Amino acid sequence: MLGAGSLGCLWAARLARAGVAVQLILRNPARLAAYQRAGGLTLVEHDQARRYAVPGQLTDDASPIQRLLLACKAYDAETAIASIAPRLAPGAELILLQNGLGSQEAVAAQVPQARCIFASSTEGAFRDGTAPEGEWRVVFAGRGHTWLGDSQDDTPPSWLSDLQRSDIPHQWSPDILSRLWRKLALNCAINPLTVLYDCRNGGLSDHATEVATLCAELDQLLQRCGQPAAAANLHADVQQVIQATAANFSSMHQDVALGRRTEIAYLLGHACATAQHQSLVLPHLAALHERLRHYLDARGLPSH
């Protein structure tokens, strides 16, 4: 497990709970020492906390890796895989749990000897930094679903049974790219506007016309990219998500509020770059991208 963020830790704790052998890979000795002082990962579920002594190691550990879950941010994925690539065994399997699109293909190009399985998840978790365990205490905030697939090979891997007994809801998807494009479109229609208007998801009800216009352009993009299934009923789905998560702040809004880098390049940036590559003019999507870039620049945050 490389990428000890909230989702990575959530997966690691549930796998360990089910008796599946799992190890966390940490980027430097100081971080490994901090993790070891915490005594493992603490998972809070249904207000009950339980600690799991998942072993930790460094990226330069000598042991070969047969299966790796890469759970870092999209903008860290290429650097992360480069740090671990020499340890990948022949025929290793990588599960790529990144938002947006673009990073998956870049990682796969770096490790042609490995099988890369793309994942898309709707699960929610956050780290409880106020607790004594700090960032090693993860709260399971929203039960969701994870879709996994391989755009090069439809054969499901044997280890899906490990996810089943770890109570990780999942489904093997023969068309994982459609799932990833759909999630990207949903994020592009919601997240940037919540940042620019500094509102919860429900606040976008006051900007219904703008949301509808963006959905229409995203529909055009998905159709042009050969993803009609990802485009189906997009506007209705976006409206449903806005209503169902009205009280929530989007992940991009949370990143900006905390002064953290966003994944703009792999969401809105990827959508606009793909439109340009397809010679498709989407003026409202392009204008939104520019507005968001200027907004991030003004706050000293990366805009690419």
Q: Which descriptors apply to this entry?
A:
Rossmann fold; alpha/beta; 5-stranded mixed beta sheet; N-(1-d-carboxylethyl)-l-norvaline Dehydrogenase, domain 2; single chain; 304 residues
Question: What does this molecule look like?
Answer:
The protein has helices spanning 6-17, 29-38, 77-84, 103-110, 160-165, 176-196, 208-224, 228-231, 234-244, 251-257, 268-277, 283-298, and strands at 24-26, 41-45, 48-52, 56-58, 65-70, 88-96, 115-121, 124-127, 137-142, 146-149, 170-172. It contains twelve helices and eleven strands. β2 (41-45) and β3 (48-52) form a beta hairpin. The mean pLDDT is 95. The strands form three sheets. It has a five-stranded mixed β-sheet. It has a four-stranded mixed β-sheet with strand order 3-2-9-8, with helices on one face. With 304 residues, it is an alpha/beta fold. The protein folds into two domains: 6-174, NAD(P)-binding Rossmann-like Domain (Rossmann fold, 3-Layer(aba) Sandwich), CATH 3.40.50.720; 178-298, Orthogonal Bundle (N-(1-d-carboxylethyl)-l-norvaline Dehydrogenase, domain 2), CATH 1.10.1040.10. 43% of the residues lie in helices and 18% in strands.
SSE map:
Blueprint lengths: L5 H12 L6 E3 L2 H10 L2 E5 L2 E5 L3 E3 L6 E6 L6 H8 L3 E9 L6 H8 L4 E7 L2 E4 L9 E6 L3 E4 L10 H6 L4 E3 L3 H21 L11 H17 L3 H4 L2 H11 L6 H7 L10 H10 L5 H16 L6
Parallel strand pairs: 1-4, 2-9, 5-6, 6-7, 10-11
Antiparallel strand pairs: 2-3, 7-10, 8-9
Helix pairs in contact: 3-4, 6-7, 6-9, 6-10, 6-12, 11-12
